[in-house]
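dumping this here before i forget
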Amino acid sequence: MDPRILRAIALRVAGEYEKSRILLRELTEFPALKAEALLNIAWSYDNEGLEERAAEYYQAALNEGLVGDNKFEALLGLACTWRCLGKYEIAKQGFEEIIRDYPDASEAIPFYALCLHNLGEHDRAMTVMLELISNHPPTPAVQRYARALKFYAQNLRG
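structure:
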């Protein structure tokens, strides 16, 4: 990773959001760094609680052709930001695309379940969470119940 981006990340982590963004905006002038710089600007706004601005930069970073982990992180950040902004339908679409395109990315699932809950889809939200736990048990104690959890995920009334 470019040392200037690392410096901007360090500034963000230290709570120096505007200083971080100033450096990152300068880096958007370099085509090879533009997408990653835009993504880091989005994270800076997100960390500061400025979701509307963050959404703009997530979209701009994606439009610049992010790839790999950065693309996934931008998609997840954008969907989470939309959910925080109350744009639940578009967030739901975003989470569903992530889950489809990144089937091993279990970290997206709890946020998807929260979005479903926000939309009043409580049974589906519970199903999604129980499936997550049964497919990715956090501890051996929970893993012992994976079969039962999978059953209940499909039979919430039972």
